[in-house]
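Can you give me the bound-state structure? Components:
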Amino acid sequence: MNILASFVCGLLFGLGLILGGMTNPAKVIAFLDLGGAWDPSLALVMGGAIAVASGAFALAARRTRSLLGAPMQLPTARDIDPKLVGGSLLFGAGWGLAGFCPGPALVALGRAAPSALLFVGAMLLGMLAFEFFDRYLKNPAPRVAVRS
Amino acid sequence: MTIDWNNFTPWTSLAGGAVLGLSAALFVLLNGRIAGISGVLGGLLRPRAGDLAWRVAFVGGLLVAPLVFGLFMELPTMQVAAEAPLLVVAGLLVGVGTRLGSGCTSGHGVCGISRLSPRSIVATLSFMASGFLTVFLTHHVLN
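Here's the bound-state model for the whole set.
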């Protein structure tokens, strides 16, 4: 059931992105272009989404289990640290360069757009690079003493 | 700043947003999880037992969305101005940045703000500011 719910939610999410106009990088860039002809549409995508979702999150915060019995896994981190801000700044730069963020890029990949294939490939590589460094920084490889 | 009224799509964008919000709402109520795309995808690269199938299913749903959308309505055009090298640089930045910052437009922007999470509000302001600045530089300064 959880897996079916995941699929349906992924599908709905993708349909919302397409309907909202988020899957067209030119429209995303027009939203980010405050100095040019500004298209405010995407602010309404976010506003509409938050208006619908906030009630559900308020309800979820008061539960320990989901309606299907899965444990409620809401983020618990509270620190506003350089990782959060620095990572978000890097993400915003990439978003502004191409007009793709992760969700719309995956939907565009579903349309077999070559640009999305390239972008998603690079994005996965970036995520893998993060995994590698994150693990290395948390558990550096033990130093091997070399005796001569 | 001028508003591009010709391309402004208030109703479809609000409706699309409501569908997104419904997906995030269902996902947290049914599965107890945050519908954050970079997090769902990132977890696939850090495989743990019993944690894979739902992620694959969610990503699968995103991938078939254009196919399903096309059954009912004409798919909107997709215009990509960025050339290949720029797409690669942008993809790397988005990949590293979303994992380092623990989220993207969906996890922080939609779910996090809906939860009134201070971390997500700061993250959203940061990536928005950075996106605005990047487009300003590439379209009005370097061009």
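A couple of observations. The first strand of chain B starts at residue 2 and ends at 3. The two ends of chain B are 17 Å apart (CA to CA).
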